Amino acid sequence: MTRILAAVLILIAGGSAAFGQAGSSTKAGAPVEAPELAGLALMLRAPLPAPLAGSSGLITLPTGYPTDRAAALERLNRYRLAAGLRPYRYDQALSDMGQAHADYILANAGTGNARGHFESTRARGYTRGGDEAARTSGIAFGERDPLAALEGLMAGTFHRLQFLRPEETRVGLGHSYGPPVAGSYDSGGTLFVTREEDGVASPAAPRFILFPPDGFDDALSTFAEGENPDPRPGIGPDSPDTGYPVTISLLPDDVRTFEGATVVVTDDTGADVPCWLSYPGRPAVDHPDLSIYAGDTAFMVQAYRDNFDAVFILPIAPLGKGRTYSVRAELRIGGTTEILSWSFATRGPTLWSVRPGSSDPRYDLETVLDGAADGDTIRLAAGEYSITEPIIIDKAVRLVGEPGRTVMRFAASGDTSSLAIESTVVMRDLDIKGDFSVYLSEGSALLFKGCRFTGADKLNPLSFMERGSRLVLEGCDFKSLASPYLAYFGDEPAGSPAPTLYLGVGNAFGALTYEGKRSYGSGVERILKRSLE
C-alpha cells in the first residue's frame, strides 16, 4: 500500500491527495476505557469532516475528458491563481506528448529504461515527442491518481517551481498506471507538460511568487519524500518526515544581485518553527557528486546550485493539521532589503469516500489508503469490498462503514496476515468476513468498534501482537468467528513491553479463548488463556 512517486529531477514517494477538508458532522461513540489508548479515544470521538465541494471549472477541457485528470488540472490552476499567476490553458498536443511518455514508462516498467527524464531509442514505445516531454516535465511514477501525483510534486521544492513559472501558460497531462512491478516504482507515470505560448510575451506576475501564498488554507503538512537532489541536510531513506516547504520564486535580476536572507516562521501560538534555509549561492546542503543521474547531471547540478531561482524555507518537523503559520522574510538584494510578511494555513483532517468495485481511483480503497494522512477518515459506502491482497496501514486513520451494510471480505493470504497495522488505527461499523487476521507491529494500536466478525482461520488467532502493541475491542460481535483465539503474543526478550488486549463494553463472544506466551516478564498476567464467556 505504500505509494511511490517520482517527478522532475526524480521525486520518489509523494504527498497525499485530498478530496475533502475539515468540517462538522457525525456524532461519534463513547471513549475507550483504556488510558494507554487516549489517542484512539480522541480519534473515535472526533467529528467526521464534511466533504469538499465538486470541481470549479477552472480550465476548459475536451468533452468527455477523464474526471480524475480534470480534477488534477483544476487543482493546478487553483494553485496558480492563488499565487497571483495566470491559469494554464489546456493544450492537446502537450497532452499527446505526455501520454506518449506515460505509455513508455508503463511499457518498460521494471526494466530500468522507464526512469529518468529521457527515453532510450532502443526501448519499447520510444517516440520523439515522448522523449521531449520527459526531459522538461514534472513526472510522478507509480501513482494511480493524477491529483495525488500533483500534490506530491507540489510538496517538493524544485518540482513545485515548474508550476509557478509565470511565462509558461500551456499545460498537457499524460497518465498511465499498471500493476506494481516487484522491486520497482515505475508501474506507470503521470506527466504535467508545461510550455510558454508561442510568440506571446510573458504575462505580468508578482516580483516574488510565494507558495503557499498569503491567505492560502490548503497546504499539506509534510515534505515530499525522496526528492533528488534533496535540499534538506542529513535526510536519508529512514529519516523522519519534515514539514511542507515554503518557497519564494525570484526574478533573474534579483538572483544575480541576491546577497542573503533572514526568515522567521511562527505558528498560531506565536512559537517559532525551526527551519532550514536555502537560497541562491547558499544551499542548505551541497551535492557535489550527482554523477549517479546519468544524462541529467549537468542540468541537475546547475539547477540545484541556483536553487531554481528561489528561496527555500524548509520546516524541520511536519506542520500541524488545520494550523495557521506566519512567515517574515528579509531578502537582501542589490544593497537593499525587501521585507515580506504573510500567513497561510494547513489543510485539516480529510474525509475520503470510497465505493465498492469503483473503477474511479478517487473512490478506490487501495488508492485512498495510499493517499490518506494521519488524522484522516475513510468512509466506506455500503456494499461488499473484496480484499484479495494484504493491506498495510501505516497512518493514524479511521475506517468507518455503514452499520450492517459495509462488508470487507478477505481472501486467504497464506502465511501473511491479511491486515498489518503500523500506526494508530480505528475500524468502526464494519462486517469483516473471510480468511481474516491482523498483525500489529511493535508499538501500534488498533480499535475495533461496532464490528462483526464472520469466518476467519480455524487454526490461527484473530491477531498477532508484537511488543508494546495494543488491541481494543468494543461493541463487537465475535459469535461467528471461527478463529480459536483473539490474540497471540510472540516470543520477546524478558523485560520487553508486553502487548495488551483491552476488552471494552458491549462485546459478544462465543466459545473463544485468547492466549499469551508468557515471555515478557511481569505484567503479562492480565492476558491469560481462559474462556471469555
Q: Percentage of helical residues?
A: 10-25%
Overall geometry: globular
Instruction: Specify Rg, calculated over alpha carbons.
Output: 25 Å
Strand percentage lies at 25-35%
Mean pLDDT across residues: 79
Major sheet: 7 strands, parallel
Query: How many DSSP-defined strands?
Result: 30
pLDDT under 50 segments (min length 5)?
1-39, 41-56, 288-297, 513-533
Oligomer: single chain
Total number of helices: 9
Strand order of the largest sheet: 12-13-16-19-22-25-28
The span between the termini is 37 Å
| Overall SS class | alpha/beta
Topology:
Layout: H1 38-45, H2 67-82, E1 89-90, H3 92-107, H4 128-135, E2 137-141, H5 146-154, H6 158-162, E3 168-175, E4 189-196, E5 209-211, E6 246-249, H7 252-256, E7 258-267, E8 275-278, H8 297-306, E9 310-315, E10 324-333, E11 336-345, E12 351-354, H9 365-371, E13 377-380, E14 383-387, E15 391-393, E16 398-400, E17 406-410, E18 419-421, E19 424-428, E20 431-434, E21 438-440, E22 445-449, E23 452-455, E24 463-465, E25 470-474, E26 477-481, E27 487-489, E28 500-503, E29 513-514, E30 530-531
Parallel strand pairs: 1-3, 12-13, 13-16, 14-17, 15-18, 16-19, 17-20, 18-21, 19-22, 20-23, 21-24, 22-25, 23-26, 24-27, 25-28
Antiparallel strand pairs: 2-4, 3-4, 5-6, 6-9, 7-10, 8-9, 10-11, 29-30
Helix pairs in contact: 2-5, 3-4
What does this structure look like?
- By secondary structure, the chain is α/β, with parallel strands linked by helices.
- Helices cover 16% and strands 27% of the residues.
- The chain has nine helices and 30 strands.
- It has helices at residues 38-45, 67-82, 92-107, 128-135, 146-154, 158-162, 252-256, 297-306, 365-371; strands at 89-90, 137-141, 168-175, 189-196, 209-211, 246-249, 258-267, 275-278, 310-315, 324-333, 336-345, 351-354, 377-380, 383-387, 391-393, 398-400, 406-410, 419-421, 424-428, 431-434, 438-440, 445-449, 452-455, 463-465, 470-474, 477-481, 487-489, 500-503, 513-514, 530-531.
- Strands 12-13-16-19-22-25-28 form a seven-stranded parallel beta sheet, sandwiched between helices. It has a five-stranded parallel beta sheet with strand order 14-17-20-23-26, with no helix packed on it.
- Helix 2 (67-82) packs parallel to helix 5 and helix 3 crosses helix 4 (128-135).
- The longest helix has 16 residues, at 67-82.
- The chain is globular and about 80 Å long.
- The two termini are 37 Å apart.
- The model is unreliable at 1-39, 41-56, 288-297 and 513-533 (pLDDT under 50).
